[in-house]
Amino acid sequence: MSTKQAHIEIASENSYMVYFGDPDSLHISPVVSAAIAASCEQIKQHFGNRLIDLVASYASLLVIYDTTQCDHLWAKKALRSILNAPKKLNQDSGQLVRMPVFYSPKYGPELSLLAQNAGLSVAQVIAIHSATEYRVYAIGFAPGFAYLGEVDERLAAPRLATPRVKVPAGAVAIADRQTAVYPASSPGGWNLIGLCPTPMFNAAKQPHMPVSVGDRVQFDPIDEQQYLAMGGQLHEL
Predict the structure, then answer these.
(1) Which residue, among 141, 153, 146, has the nearest Cα to 177 in the 3D structure?
(2) Reduced 3-state DSSP string for 159-216
(3) Among 8, 139, 205, 210, which residue's beta carbon has the most beta carbons within 10 A?
């Protein structure tokens, strides 16, 4: 798609929302994601210290700017110029981040259920989930929560009918054709399949997250001993 088709709307007194598709759509599109990732890099370069934050989603990008450094007219004109500029969209852009996962029916209680529903063994589910290269489509729900897609259709599963009151930090989960690592302990209704020792959010570090929108993620299976050696903690559910 061309980013010239993007639509800009005022979101607040110091932010614009840029829509790259249907504002109500959650359709996962590698092309749209690539356009958003390319636009993010250009906005960072063009805005410089005028930029406060960028919040990307499946088909939109929230641009928050510093009104002491620029006004809304300058910001909109700059965004329109950036969106109209030629872009080479690369769906394989972004860094490839490998993340270890301790897949476990004990600590990922839906792992066996997903295997049973798909007519697969637990080992096959692990092999399929870890063989896929996922794209970071959005950051949301909680700081550090990265929505990754797309999960192999054999492993796709709806959210739990009754969400858990507490999901531990580091829990690896599947919902529909998305997968994610919970960055902190929180309520959640995704299907849990294991644990990841990699912290997904640290406010004291730059960058705060190991991944950004447009990056690619692949999971590497590890055993319990390796998980603990990497700093992981075991959480009974």
Answers:
(1) 153
(2) CCCCCEEEECCCEEEEEECEEEECCCCEEECCEEEEECCCCCCCCCCCCCCCCCCCCE
(3) 139
Task: Report the run of H or E that residue 65 belongs to, with start and end.
Answer: strand 60-65
User: Cβ distance 170 to 195 under 8 Å?
Assistant: yes
Q: Do residues 211 and 136 lie in contact, with contact meaning Cβ atoms separated by under 8 Å? A: yes
Q: Structure pTM?
A: 0.81
| Each residue's pLDDT tens digit, 26-73 | 567 788 888 888 899 899 999 999 999 888 888 889 999 999 999 999
Which of 42-46, 75-79, 212-216 has the weakest average pLDDT? 212-216
pLDDT category of residue 206 using cuts at 50, 70 and 90: confident
CB 108 within 8 A of CB 195: yes
Work out the mean pLDDT of the chain and round it to a whole number. 91
**Domain range list for the chain:** 3-84, 96-229
Fold of the CATH domain 3-84? Gyrase A; domain 2 (3.30.1360)
Distance (Å, whole) CA 11 – CA 196 = 35
CATH H-level, domain 96-229: superfamily = Cyclophilin-like (2.40.100.10)
